[in-house]
Recover the amino acids of this structure.
């Protein structure tokens, strides 16, 4: 008999692992599992793995009513139809009807969201921006993701494709981004951006200790080299910080938020990245945007997507009532 | 006796003239007046002029109940307290409690909004974007103003200072903007930006027919010179279009709107500005944002601020109920 408080089952689907958790409304994670994502297998195989893990987690909270399944997925997706168009690091995924498939296999209503959007929601509800009505969230990782909370709600846009601040261009002549455009924030301030710019500088003859890593170079190598005094590495991190600062400044002018939350592995570089970022923000001639503004590190770490997916279900009433109705039918 | 349909009195406060109109919910302008703004006088003098015009307009619609006064004002303002911090072209205006003063003099509840935000609202409700839930509005005039409709509501931000796309920077090294920052969209694509860039090019020795205008050069001279084949003028308009295109592209990535509405005097340059803008937008590698997207000229012309101010009052229930309550108390 279901006697406990309502539970959302949350899934965070990543390229190397997926995680499933039972989460209260608070939100409190009662039970969780993590399993490797079989990224090279067909999507059906991965979906079956997830469904099995969901059943296992449900069994562990069998005294509580499970009200739905929330899924944080990477890449472009349709949050209304529940289709994942594409997923970075999951090469076989094209137009996968993830919500339908999971609903069929688990019997639960399923809501789907972009992982960065859901992380923004989680940071606004129970993280670094707890209680914020106007929040800008950026995650600096392999790419740059973002999510915006406006008047307490996620900004999703016409197709759910809003909030791609990583692809805000800061210069038509800037470095080439993975998306095909030039000068995107992601081309400067993501792990991929840092690595690409380093490889390009080395290829053009710039001396740097980074050269010894060859094509295996990653963002952590650049961070470590900068700490040891490598000029190229330090310069790239400084430029990433300045680009991030310009990006944040633009977002202040557009959204006038009370808080900017910055997370992701690259953000943990700390002062060498944050200081130039803050210098550019502080140099903003439009000082009104800095009044009572906080710019802070994310608080929820790797759990932000999972918690956001759970909140998506718990808040489905105001936020996505139609979809929940649709999947329950 | 008030027997007609509810009427909002709308005020559009500009630097050279102010306009007052009686507007139905539809919205339909029943009666309007325009008077010169005494820009060099004390704010009290202008406010008294406005209050008198409001009384005159009210007298003309005396059979209908007047439910409130909506004011579209330029420059930074606090829509909650109703204070205008500063107003371009009104040099004596600093921290003017415009809503309070108008309420005292007219006895009407007063709601205040930024003119570009209100123009965006009007274009979304009854203009080029009629019925749009996700709309981006840009007005290219002396400066570049903007307004965003998100999920059917104006995005105002923490202090009402959101939606300043004119001060989205497209390059840390770009031309100096009137705001003090560099590379703002406004520094390229506003009348002031075009003129400043032309004067700078001429001062640095660039040959152009524009030189004969001296310091009296204005944006219309640049438009006319480009039509007559002046290379500098054509180049500046082309660059303004490209910058506008990059700005629009960024806003697509951030807001995923269904429609982008572009108005203001500079936008009427037409193809020489719109073509390079559209080329940059069409070159966007992230094609999802262009699906079913419309980019169109504004439809309401000079009336957009006035209609938006009226809509502010008519929609005050859902939009700004608290403020309306506060002013009625």
């Amino acid at each position: 008999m279901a006697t406990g408080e309502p539970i959302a089952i949350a899934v965070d689907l990543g390229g190397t692992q997926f995680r499933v958790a039972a989460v209260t409304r608070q939100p409190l994670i009662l039970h969780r599992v993590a399993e490797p994502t079989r990224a090279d297998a067909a999507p059906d195989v991965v979906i079956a793995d997830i469904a099995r893990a969901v059943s296992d987690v449900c069994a562990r909270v069998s005294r509580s009513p499970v009200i739905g399944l929330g899924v944080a997925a990477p890449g472009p997706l349709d949050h209304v139809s529940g289709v994942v168009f594409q997923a970075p690091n999951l090469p076989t995924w094209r137009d996968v009807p993830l919500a339908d498939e999971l609903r069929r296999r688990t019997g639960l209503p399923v809501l789907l969201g972009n992982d960065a959007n859901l992380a923004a929601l989680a940071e606004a509800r129970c993280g670094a921006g707890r209680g914020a009505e106007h929040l800008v969230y950026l995650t600096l990782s392999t790419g740059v993701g973002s999510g915006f909370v406006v008047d307490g709600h996620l900004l999703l846009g016409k197709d759910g494709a809003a909030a791609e601040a990583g692809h805000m261009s800061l210069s038509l002549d800037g470095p080439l981004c993975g998306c095909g455009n030039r000068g995107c924030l992601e081309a400067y301030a993501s792990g991929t951006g840092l690595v690409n710019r380093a490889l390009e500088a080395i290829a053009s003859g710039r001396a740097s200790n980074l050269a010894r890593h060859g094509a295996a170079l990653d963002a952590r190598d650049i961070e470590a080299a900068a700490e040891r005094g490598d000029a190229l590495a330090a310069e790239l991190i400084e430029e990433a910080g300045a680009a991030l600062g310009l990006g944040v400044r633009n977002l202040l002018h557009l959204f006038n938020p009370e808080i900017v939350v910055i997370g992701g592995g690259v953000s943990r570089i700390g002062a060498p990245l944050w200081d130039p970022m803050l210098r550019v923000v502080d140099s903003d001639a439009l000082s009104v945007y800095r009044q009572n503004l906080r710019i802070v590190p994310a608080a929820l770490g790797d759990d932000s997507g999972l918690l956001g997916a759970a909140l998506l279900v718990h808040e489905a009433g105001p936020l996505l009532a139609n979809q929940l109705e649709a999947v329950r039918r």
Observations:
- Chain B has a mean pLDDT of 93.
- Chain B is about 40% helix and 20% strand.
- Chain B has two domains: 7-114+302-328, 128-299.
- Chain B touches chain A through 46 residues (CB under 8 Å).
